[in-house]
Write a structure and sequence with these properties.
Elements (H helix, E strand, L loop, with lengths): L1 E4 L13 E4 L2 E17 L5 H7 L6 E15 L2 E6 L2 E5 L5 E2 L6 E14 L10 H9 L10 E2 L2 H24 L2 H20 L5 E2 L4 H12 L7 H8 L3 H12 L3 H19 L4 H7 L5 H12 L3 H13 L1
Antiparallel strand pairs: 1-3, 2-3, 3-8, 4-5, 4-6, 4-7, 4-8, 6-9, 9-10
Helix pairs in contact: 3-4, 6-7
């Protein structure tokens, strides 16, 4: 893992490019570090371990995920992390951008803060308000994370790598102006592509699971693999099954069986269809598999359930 820290600009001559007025006080843009990271998690982290890693502080993080597939935590929700996802966290927002599930993920991170003139106080402004200070424009709040289109991803990746190079140059020649220009180029990208864009694709922590649930409901009698569903949700199979069950109380496969079996119960007492026809209609190609699963769920065979309810109707 590569990490370059800038402890302070106190030994360098500050330009006025990244100085702002906040409440009648001059504040300075303070770059803390930029890094390329790779996280590798080999097993499912216990929930209590993740909770210990979640933290907040009075700095900003710009995160660009460049590879792998995992999940991260931001503001009360877990989100998919994969190539093309960009995140901005403002001061005091709870977060953990590492790996929250088995697998690896790669990212580039830039962390900075706003200091007052005494360099003792970090200001807490939402990122959109900071952009307003820099540009003099007014921006609506963007709910991160955001999924970038390929051209946008390639552009911000190039700018982020240039920022890393500028940090290296700063360590050698202490010329802050070059670093500030690299930072401004990154800020310009956000203003032009995200805060002034019309078709920003935000990534939801929950709506993707709702869409997957709806897909199962619409295709309950079809063959759907966990791998396919997990891919649609941008999660690994293991993590997808875990978060789906946490959200809806049963695994994706259990939910599909639930839909099939309850539909079968209705058909058994409301139609004249044979049991093998019902089994096929709800998605079981094998009547013996259908009977076995039905009895496991309802403690009665399909045939006995049908006869019992027919006799009840005759009475």
């Amino acid at each position: 893992m590569r990490k370059e820290y800038l402890k302070s600009f106190s030994n360098s001559k500050l330009s006025q490019l990244l100085q702002f007025k906040v409440k009648d006080s001059t504040c300075h843009f303070h770059a803390l570090h930029a890094e390329k990271e790779q996280y590798l998690e080999t097993k499912v982290p216990p929930a209590r371990s993740i909770s210990k890693l979640i933290h907040s502080h009075r700095v900003y993080h710009l995160i660009l995920y460049t590879g792998g597939r995992n999940s991260f935590f931001l503001n009360g929700g877990f989100y998919p992390s994969h190539r093309g996802v960009v995140v901005v966290s403002s001061p005091d927002e709870p977060h953990y951008f590492g790996a929250c599930e088995p697998g690896n993920v790669r990212s580039i991170e830039f962390t900075f803060g706003l200091e007052d003139e005494s360099r003792d106080i970090f200001y807490s402004l939402p990122f959109d308000k900071l952009l307003s200070l820099i540009t003099g424009m007014t921006f609506d709040q963007v709910h991160y994370p955001v999924r970038l289109e390929e051209p946008q991803y390639r552009e911000i990746l190039s700018l982020a790598e240039s920022l890393l190079i500028s940090l290296d140059d700063f360590r050698k020649d202490k010329i802050l102006f070059k670093l500030e220009l690299a930072i401004i180029d990154v800020i310009k990208f956000f203003v032009r592509n995200i805060y002034s864009g019309d078709n920003i694709e935000t990534v939801s922590a929950h709506d993707n699971l709702k869409q997957i649930k709806l897909k199962i409901e619409n295709n309950y009698n079809s063959f759907i693999t966990l791998k396919e569903l997990a891919k649609d949700a941008n999660f690994s199979v293991r993590h997808f099954c875990r978060v789906f069950k946490e959200r809806f109380g049963m695994s994706p496969i259990e939910y599909q069986h639930y839909l099939r079996l309850h539909t079968a119960k209705t058909l058994l007492v409301s139609t004249t269809m044979r049991i093998n026809e019902i089994a096929e209609k709800v998605g079981y190609g094998d009547i013996y598999q259908f009977s076995r699963i039905f009895k496991k769920y309802f403690k009665i065979s399909p045939l006995s359930y049908q006869k019992k309810n027919i006799n009840r109707q005759l009475k």
